[in-house]
Write a structure and sequence with these properties.
Blueprint lengths: L2 E3 L6 E3 L6 E5 L10 H9 L3 E5 L15 H15 L4 E6 L2 H11 L4 E7 L9 H13 L5 H10 L10 H12 L2 H11 L6 H7 L4 E6 L8 H11 L3 E5 L6 H4 L1 H13 L3
Parallel strand pairs: 3-4, 3-5, 5-6, 6-7, 7-8
Antiparallel strand pairs: 1-2, 2-4
């Protein structure tokens, strides 16, 4: 039976059991329910699955800052509080940068990282900087939930989940809270200073997963290949999927994760 808890800085749900610990983290501006399909598939394989909200998101308490380092520290606190590691962290979009940082700093707590559609490096182009400024403005007022829902719907390319409208309603509720909007804005635009250094020190096995139609990247297939190489790990490209391949094709992604984790020994 899944139990909800706020015993660490990050609010989370825990399936319990004695299986290998899997910690699932959503992207910035998202909720732990992002992993609603993946968590049940992994739990059915006997893993202890913990799904957590990022700092200031969902049911997690607001934080003083929303940097990659602060997120990493929150991940470390969660894994320590569970006292069942080393954990395999499955993280999406913004969150893999925090997972990499955490594993580089505290390698004894982590057995592996699965990076789903990771944004590990900042795009410093003029276009990207302008987009960030626009995003900060769009997500600042009471209209933010509707704006975010419009973006979010478009990130599912070929197989949006049947319950997408319900998920969008949950996101709109989160964005109705000014403190949650601030957490989402600052996480979405957080700098990546120090991440490359942690990647160079990373010693845990990795699996990267990208959708072939992820429009967060100019060439997602090329980025998938380069990211897997940079993390010195395995890679999977899910054909036809967008930014959330684990939601569009959860069975395929779960199977890859299970094979990856079982190969860790």
């Amino acid at each position: 039976m899944t139990k909800a808890s706020t015993s660490s800085e990050l609010a989370h749900e825990d399936t319990g059991g004695g299986g290998r610990l899997m910690v699932l983290l959503p992207g910035a501006g998202d909720l732990r329910s992002e992993h609603r399909f993946l968590s049940s598939l992994l739990a059915a394989e006997g893993f202890r699955v913990v799904t957590a909200d990022l700092p200031g998101h969902g049911d997690s308490a607001p934080a003083t800052e929303y940097t990659v380092e602060a997120t990493a520290n929150a991940i470390i606190d969660l894994v320590e509080s569970l006292d069942a590691g080393p954990a395999v962290v499955v993280a999406c979009s913004f969150a893999p940068a925090g997972a990499v940082w955490a594993a580089a700093e505290r390698p004894e707590l982590f057995g592996g990282i699965v990076a789903l559609s990771p944004h590990l490096h900042a795009d410093d182009s003029f276009k990207a900087r302008a987009a960030n400024i626009a995003l900060m403005a769009l997500l600042r007022g009471p209209w933010a939930g509707a704006m975010w829902a419009g973006f979010y719907r478009g990130w599912y390319k070929t197989n949006p989940p049947d319950d997408l409208d319900q998920e969008l309603a949950r996101l709109k509720t989160m964005f109705s809270d000014p403190a949650r909007r601030k957490a989402a804005r600052q996480s979405l635009t957080a700098h990546r200073d120090g991440v490359a250094e942690r990647i160079a020190r990373l010693g845990v096995p990795t699996l990267t997963v990208f959708g072939s139609m992820d429009d967060h990247f100019d060439d997602p297939v090329a980025v998938a290949e380069s990211t897997a190489t940079e993390l010195n790990g395995d890679g999977l490209v899910v054909e036809g999927a967008g930014h959330y391949p684990h939601v569009e094709q959860p069975e395929a992604v779960a199977a890859a994760i299970v094979a990856f984790v079982n190969g860790l020994g």
